[in-house]
Amino acid sequence: xTVSLRDTRSAELYAxxxxxxxxxxxxxxxxxxxxxxxxxxVDRAAGAELIDVDHNTYVDWVCSWGPLIHGHxxxxxVAAVVAAAGRGTTFGAPTAAxxxxxxxxxxxxxxxxxLRMTSSGTEASMSAIRLARAATGREGLLxxxxxxxxxxxxxxxxxxxxxxxxxxxxxxxxxAAATAGTVIVPWNDADAVIEATATHDLAAILxxxxxxxxxxxxxxxxxxxxxxxxxxxxxxxxxxxxxxxGLRVARGGAQELTGVIPDLTVMGKVIGxxxxxxxxxxPRELMERIAPAGDxxxxxxxxxxxxxxxxxxxxxxxxDGESPYLQLAATTEALAAALAQAxxxxxxxxxxxxxxxxxxTVFFSDRPVTDYAGAQACDLGAYAAxxxxxxxxxxxxPPSQFEAWFPSLxxxxxxIARTAEAAAAAFGELG
Length: 431
Ligand SMILES: *Cc1c(COP(=O)(O)O)cnc(C)c1O
Description:
Elements (H helix, E strand, L loop, with lengths): L7 H13 L21 E5 L2 E4 L4 E4 L14 H12 L9 H13 L5 E5 L2 H16 L3 E5 L12 E3 L7 E3 L6 H4 L2 E4 L4 H10 L2 E6 L15 H12 L2 E6 L10 H6 L5 E4 L10 E5 L1 H4 L18 H12 L5 H23 L6 E5 L2 E5 L8 H5 L3 H13 L2 E2 L16 H18 L1
Parallel strand pairs: 3-15, 5-8, 5-9, 9-10, 10-11
Antiparallel strand pairs: 1-2, 2-3, 4-12, 6-7, 11-12, 13-14
This protein binds pyridoxal-5'-phosphate.
């Protein structure tokens, strides 16, 4: 039996939204086009549950794509934001809380001695690249196919065909000159990394240490160490984009989890506690190249915004000690086990579930996914149908197989049980 969603109000809002917003949304994935349905308009949320404008309740496994490690509207975070707002929402002058947040992050992330805050992850990666180019006097960049570092011109690049190693624009409007210096290599391809680092003068190797924007695809054994070695031996900087993994997969992010320390780290999402904040950081001698300490220009009217900083700080205070991270990892593994069991119970076999603490992807594939080509080869149509089946049963899973699920500290065994039951029914419909 096919169940469907009550969505009259969402449909009305979407029709209006299409008049004033391109595609009806302010960021593409929200439109749910890749699962072949219209967007769901949210009314409110608390903990791990989301309520839409038609009064449907969902278990939310997207959690705003990563910032909400404590779930929605955590009372301590809301109180911190309200208190900060009462003192003034922005000053364009420094505040004590910014120093506190920078100190908290620097205590946690092994590679971050100093940081500069920005308002989005996109800005932070753009700025980290500028710093890497200034520090090395080189312009080339190496990035991985299927990785996302924000919509920076030079990073909206895809591999050229055949033997071409120059990146080509991945979107109209991106100048060819902006991507010409970007080399794209398949994730987990050691030979390609060795070749590309030997033949190009690179300012930086840029990587999500646990890529989560092609779905979650863990690094192969030794791969991050190889990136570290190749960067050091060729004079490039290693930049880890920990916008998703930072402060999530472990207290100190993927760099703590793997012991591979980058030269520069890009952060976002969790650092802002659900408000717009991001940062880039590294050792003092590199970071002091940034203006006004140094000559590399970068600025922002709302950078280090008091509300975002208050939310970030409150969020980090709730992450003190090891137990939140143990809980997050346990929740992730319990979810993975429940989804695998749901698939088995429905006789559905072509599934690979990838996890890292606080991150999960369900690949509709009968072989392990180790790179972007593998993610693209999955049965995306089956994922879309399954995801629509989940939504219809009150489970809000990422409406694209190329995105991760974001378990939070607000998800309970009951949420997992509800998810497993819906998942089994939705698998059963796939036939
Ligand atoms: C979300 C994301 C970004 C971009 O951050 P925005 O705040 O959306 O600009 C960069 N890198 C990674 C790995 C991300 O997941």
